[in-house]
Amino acid sequence: MKHVINEGKTLLVDGPASVSILSGKVSVLGAPLQISEKLVVREGKRLPLWVRKRATLELMMGEGASINEVDAGTVPSLWDEAAKEILSLDKPLTVMVIGGMDSGKTSFCTFLVNEAVMNKWRTSVIDADLGQSDVGPPSTVGFNFVTEPVKDLFEIDAQDAVFVGSTSPSGAINKVIEGLTQLKDKVIEAGVDFLVINTDGWVEGEEAAAYKVRLAEKVGSSVVVGMQRGNELSPILDALHGVKVLVIDSPQLIQPRNREKRKVLRELSYKKYLKGAKMQSFSLSWIKVIDSLLGAGGPLHHRRLETLSNLLGTRPIYSEETVATILVVLKKSEAVTEEQIKDAEEHFGKRVKVIREGDEEGLLVGLKDEEDIFLGIGILHEVDYKRKILKIYTPVSEKVSMLCFGQIKLNKNFREIGLSTVYSKEL
Hints:
The mean pLDDT is 93. Helix content is 23%, strand content 36%. It is of the alpha+beta class. It contains eight helices and 24 strands. It is elongated and about 80 Å long. Helix 8 links the parallel strand 18 (325-330) and strand 19 (351-356). Strands 1, 2, 3, 4, 5, 6 and 7 form a seven-stranded antiparallel sheet that branches. The chain has a seven-stranded mixed sheet with strand order 11-10-9-12-8-13-14, sandwiched between helices. Strands 15, 16, 20, 21, 22, 23 and 24 form a seven-stranded mixed sheet that branches.
């Protein structure tokens, strides 16, 4: 359908939808929309179109999509002022943006990146929002350089990423901080003028506040931008020292998303990074498995295996032993009691982790090359424990040298179906 909108107005488009400009001048978060250019708005996403000159738009609306015409400009005046102040500082600059869920962090990061690019600054972005990552697959910290204005950070593919394997940082704080620091160093070494870091929405509570403060300090941010509706960021911002802090109110135009909408956005991202995937086999003899019980130890001596089998009342189809743990894999039809596991732990003096064949199906994995460079993601289909072969559905075509198991399980349609710590070293 065609829609005519006057200068000075903003059209809020909630996806799934696509927009083409037939005439006039329109921009999205500072990025100009060209005549006949097609703008795709994902399901669960809202993009604001600011009309600089009376425009005619061609709209295609999917199920659940909507539009809303408002008077306010796309970019709140405080955003404009903050961007001007930040870009007046000396290069190189690292700007970290923090805020709760649906506070407008990603929109502001997009606007800030566009301002820097249009000022001819060498610009890069790191997306550390594990659950709603746009640059890189969900459960990763991803980065890339930006040379042209973008309407949506999802347009930017990850040049490199750190696989965390979880959509929440709460159980993986050290992994996120180490990964983000590693990527930041790589970006700075490349000689960029401007680095924007987007973060997750976990800000409430002492643990969340301590995490955000530690993150800002470890990364060495030049500026921290706090986006809030009230004073929810005060415990974080008040604890920051030696860094410039800017506080911006969250705009009223931001659309709150429920948990299901967030899962839909992640599903679209999984599909993007698994496009062209096929089933591939990887031998445990040829790849290194990182931070996992599987592949971390050696086979049990015959006598120890016999003792373990007697204590559990069944013979494992696979087992291996490290200094601290014995991993036991049973047939799907077999089961053991907590008491039997406890007896085995007391006998061997170490933790006994018991899983069933097939428990691993659907597990998200990250794949790396021999130089520890992220290659992509995959879905673990099954493990042939007898031949020590992993069957993984992945588009990665390069030689894989390392593999990391995540905690997210996906079905064949890339929908999240739960969490699993099947190979985790953690208790």
